[in-house]
Amino acid sequence: MDSHRLLKIGLFGFGCVGQGLYDILSREEALPFKVERICVKDPTKLRPLPTESFTYDWHQVLQDDSLDILVEAISDANEAYTIVAEALRRGKKVVTANKKLVAYHLPELLALQQEFGGVLLYEAAVAGGIPIIRTVEEYFSNEPLERVHGILNGSSNYILSQIFKLQKGYAEALKEAQDKGFAELDPWLDVAGADARHKLCILAAHAFGRTIAPEELAFFGIDYLSDADVEYAKQSDSVIKMVASAHLTADGELVPVVLPSLVDASDDLFVVEQEFNGVVVQGTYSGPQLFKGRGAGGHPTGAAVLSDIVSISNGYSYGYKKLNKTTNAPALALDFELEVYLRSSEPELVAALGLTNLQNVQRDNDTFSVLGTVTLGNLIKNQDHIRKAGAYIMALSSDFVGAPARKVKVQEQVS
Questions:
Q1: Contact present, 233 and 222 (Cβ < 8 Å)
Q2: Which reactions is this enzyme annotated as catalysing (predicted)?
C-alpha cells in the first residue's frame, strides 16, 4: 500500500471495540488511517455520532473498493463469519476482534486466505491489549513451546479478585463487574469459561500447530462457585483463578483445558488481578515468560486492532509456522491425569468421572466435596453432566503439567 496516502477503513460494528478504535484514531491524528465507513445493524440505537455517519447494509461496505482495510467488530459470531468470509473471497485485508468467529472457523478462514489472497489478522481476539498471538507466532516461531497458559478472561478474573481481596459474595461481585462494563448482561460466556475456551483454541493453533474445535476442549468456569469452595481455597493458602492451559506431554500429546485452579503466592498468575489478563509462555530453552495487560475494554482492545491495522497495511500476515511445519498435529492426551476438587450433590458424578485417589473434604446435608484424580478424556466426556448437575470443579494447582504434591488441608479424611 502507498505509505504516503491516508488509508481508508471500513468498520463493522460500533460497540465497545469499534468505538475504542474510532476514539484512538480521532486522537492520534498523525496516524495515516481514517474510518471512512461504519456499518451498524440497528438504525434506532442511540450512538455518539450523527446518524449520517452510519450505513446499515454490509454489502455496500464490502463492495466499496475505495476502502483499504476492513475491521470487523460486531458481537454476533455467525454474522461476523458471513462478512469476514465474503471479504476474504474478495481478497480484502481484514482485521477482526471476534474470538468466537476465529475459534469456530479457523480452518475455513485459512483456506479462504490461501485461495483468494486476502489477509486476516486477529490479535485483538485474544487477551485484549497483550500482543500474545504475534509473540507466539513470531518470537517463538522456531523454538518449541512446552506450555502456554494463563488468565484469558478479564471479567471472571475481576469477579474472583473481588471475592478474594474484598471478601464479596459471588453474586455481588458479578453485579459489580456488569455495572463496570467488564461482564455482559448475560455473563455466561465469561463466567462459565466459554470465552476463555475460544481464546485457547486460537492460541493452541499458533503455539502448537493444532487447530482445536471448541467442542473438543473441556471448559469449566466459576458460575457454580460457592462460599464453601472459596473457604477451601483460603484454607489451602491459595486464591482461585480461572486458568486456560495447553501443554505438551512427554509423549508429545496436547492437553488443552479451561479450569478454575488453586493458585498460591509462588505462582506467576498470582499477581494478575482485577480485569487484567496474564499469559505465561514457556519455551523449551527460554523458560517461562509472563505477559500481563488489560484483557478487556474499548481502548486496550482497540489498540490491539490498531496494531493489526498498521501491520496489515505494511504487508504483514500470519505465517502459521507451527501449523505449516507440523505434518502430524499433536493428538489430544485423553489419558492425562489432573488432580481436582469436586463439589456436587450427585454422588453418581464421582463414578461417571472415574475419579481415583479419592479423599473426602466435606459433607453437608445434600452436598459433598472430594479430591480426586481425573483423566482429560473423562473431563471432556462428562463436562455437560457436570454443568447440568450445578457442580463445581477446579484443579488443585495451575501447574497441570505434573500432578502437584497434595499441599491441601483436608477437613475430613476418608477412613
A1: no
A2: L-homoserine + NADP(+) = L-aspartate 4-semialdehyde + NADPH + H(+)
Q: Give the torsion through C-alpha atoms of 223, 229, 235, 236, to 10 deg.
A: -60
Amino acid at 294: R
For residue 402, the model assigns a pLDDT of 53
**Do the Cβ atoms of 304 and 97 come closer than 8 Å?**
yes
Distance CA 246, CA 340 (A): 17
Strands (E), 301-391: 337-344, 356-363, 368-375
Structural contact between residues 322 and 375, judged by C-beta atoms closer than 8 angstroms: no
pLDDT at 183: 76
Q: Cell digits for 195?
A: 470465552
DSSP, res 301: H
| Residue type for position 158 | Y
CATH class of segment(s) 133-297+330-395: alpha beta
* CATH class of the domain at 7-121: alpha beta
Q: What is the pLDDT of residue 50?
A: 85
| Residue 217 to residue 229: CA distance in whole angstroms | 24
CA–CA distances in Å: residue 16 to residues 13, 181, 207, 298: 9, 9, 28, 5
Q: Which residues pair with 71 in a beta bridge?
A: 11, 95
Q: Which stretches of the chain drop beneath a pLDDT of 50? A: 403-415
82-104 as b/e, with b when 16 or more CB fall inside 10 Å? ebbbbbbeeebbbbbbbbbbbbb
DSSP category for residue 384: H
Residue 53, all three cell numbers = 455517519
Q: Which residues contact 99 (CB under 8 A, 6 or more apart)?
A: 122, 125, 126, 195, 198, 199, 202
d(CA 40, CA 22) in angstroms, rounded, equals 14
Residue 300 corresponds to which amino acid?
P
Tell me what pLDDT residue 268 has.
93
Please list the residue range(s) of the chain that carry CATH number 3.30.360.10: 133-297+330-395
Residue intervals in the chain for CATH 3.40.50.720: 7-121
Place of cell 518449541: 144
Q: What is the chain's Cα-based Rg?
A: 22
Show which residues are catalytic: 199
Query: Which amino acid is residue 11, in one-letter code?
Result: L
Give the separation between CA 391 and CA 353, rounded to whole angstroms.
12
Q: How far apart are CA 63 and CA 60, in angstroms?
A: 5
pTM of structure: 0.93
